[in-house]
Specification:
Layout (H helix, E strand, L loop, with lengths): L5 H28 L6 H7 L5 E4 L6 E4 L1 H14 L19 H6 L7 H9 L23 H17 L11
């Protein structure tokens, strides 16, 4: 004696297969997005035409960063910075964000790789007058210089190219 009809079994099978397909898409999405070692958002916004050119120092020199390097920088940002700097905002100190204008307005400027890394090694207040308690110091034992450069390159590239980076969305 059957507890359900063959039509019900067919419906159950279709729903089960559809659910399994949906789960497979979700599970496979991340590896596919990183199949070439580049995060999908990094590829879309930061490196759609190849490596990103990022300001290296106050003299205007620049360095090129691949999608892979910016993906590593993004991962470091997400692991270490996003809690206080979601989408380029500065949650503990909202008037100062991670926009290029705000980074350039700091003393010394943080709108370049060297200035940004220097700040992370020894955080100072926005006007540069004293050590800052708002951002934690990142010693070499925690992140090596190349890692900090990739984190800085991601942040500066996002500030330049990601729509809405460092700004609060309006309700309009």
């Amino acid at each position: 004696m059957a507890f359900y009809s063959s039509a019900a079994a067919g419906t159950w099978l279709k729903r089960t297969l559809a659910a399994m397909a949906a789960i497979a898409v979700v599970l496979l999405q991340t590896p596919l997005a990183l199949a070439d070692g580049i995060n999908a958002d990094v590829k879309r916004y930061l490196t759609p035409d190849g490596p990103a050119e990022v300001k290296l120092d106050a003299q205007g020199n620049s360095a090129r960063y691949s999608g892979e390097a910016l993906t590593r920088g993004r991962d470091l940002f997400m692991e270490n910075c996003a809690y206080c700097h979601a989408n380029g905002l500065t949650l503990p100190l909202p008037p100062i964000s991670l926009t290029l204008a705000d980074l350039a307005g700091a003393t010394p400027p943080r709108d370049n790789i060297n200035g940004f890394v220097t700040y992370l090694r020894e955080p100072m207040t926005y006007d540069g007058s004293e050590p800052s308690d708002w951002c934690r110091q990142v010693p070499e034992s925690w992140l090596a210089r190349p890692e900090l450069e990739e984190l800085a390159a991601f942040t500066l590239s996002a500030a330049e190219k990601v729509p809405g980076w460092g700004s609060v969305p309006s309700n309009r």
